[in-house]
Amino acid sequence: MPALSLLRRSLLAALAGGLLATSLPAAAAGEYIRPGVSFALLGDVPYGVAEEPKFDRVIADINASRNVRFVLHTGDVKQGSERCDDAVFIKRFNQYQKFDDAFIVTPGDNDWTDCHRTNNGSYLPTERLAKFREIFYPAIGRSTGKRPMALLSQAATPGQAAHAAYVENTLWQFAGATMATVHVVGSANNLAPWNQLAGGDRPAERQAEFDARLAASLAWIDEIFNRAVAANSAGVMLAMQANPGLEYAAGSPQRLGFDEVIARITARSIAFGKPVLLAHGDSHYFRVDKPLVNAGVSLENLTRVENFGSPNVHWVEVFVDARDPNVFSVVPRIVPGNVVTR
Q1: What pTM, to 2 d.p., does this model score?
Q2: Partner of 180 for a Cys bridge, out of 68, 171, 213, 218, CB 3.0 to 4.6 A?
Q3: Residues 264, 10, 53, CA angle at the centre, nearest 5°?
């Protein structure tokens, strides 16, 4: 399907479901403004050098917002066929530092798990993850961007010493809600073989990485909800890179690598009983829905928002208001100069 048609279909589907904040009062300039504050959600951009100018327009659009307080990127800072060289990582990191506010990112599969591909440079994925951490998390417990903000990192959280490597798993409070990132990636959460390495896949090493990161993810999800309850938070927002197949049944191929994470989020969301927003990227399809309800799980308080992704280089504004029973309101922001017309 043409990219513009896909974008239109995703917008119309969300509108038909009544899930977008479409009844907001119009400002003088024609922009919809909601009381309270917001954050910018994006991911899967920029994909290659050709999209870097488009992403600069996204940066300018977000910087012009009167409501945005931080920017959250759900991973894939590079295209799947783009090399995983240090220079590419550094170039993208520097571009993200143009944001006027705090910038927070969680790694994507393009950023390390898929770096074994020949056209990515045939890197060992775990080595690339170490380099990604070095570049994108220069200070534990602190975001980047022009106005960095303090974050609680799993690497420095009491009781989480067994997971000290996971500097990318972070937590913060915002507008009465508990917000967090959890390192869960596509490519079956790194269960997909590293089959283009010189010498072939390394299944034992790959499985060990998966097992350790899964343990960290489950411990971090518990920490997030425990802190949300202790703080009497109005809601919880979790961000990850992977589309974990929420609408599919447990044990299905689309859930490979994700069942335990979904089960833990489901159980904790049910117990929490207040609005939970699960943000992710990966499939490049903007949507807002209740996927677990569609999958037969009675979990009306969990909403999924997926950000735009290449070739649709736009962003999503998420308003957070503890006084609103829904807490989170989602507004797609289309950057006019980036509309795909083919």
Answers
A1: 0.90
A2: 171
A3: 100
Is the Cα torsion angle 109, 282, 266, 273 positive or negative in sign?
positive
Average pLDDT over residues 109-136: 98
Chain length of the chain:
342
pLDDT value of residue 1: 38
What whole-number distance in Å separates Cα of residue 244 and Cα of residue 248? 9
Predicted confidence band of residue 342 (pLDDT cuts 50, 70, 90): low
The 10s digit of each residue's pLDDT in 1-19 is 334 344 444 443 343 333 3
DSSP assignment of 20-67, as one string? B--SPPBPTTS-B--SSEEEEEE-S---SGGGHHHHHHHHHHHHT-SS
Q: What separation in angstroms does the CA of 340 have from each of 2, 81, 147, 287, 333? A: 9, 21, 32, 18, 14
Q: Taking residues 311-334, what's their average pLDDT?
A: 97
Residue among 261, 281, 272 nearest 220 (CA)? 261
Identify which of 88, 42, 8, 15 has the alpha carbon closest to the alpha carbon of residue 310.
42
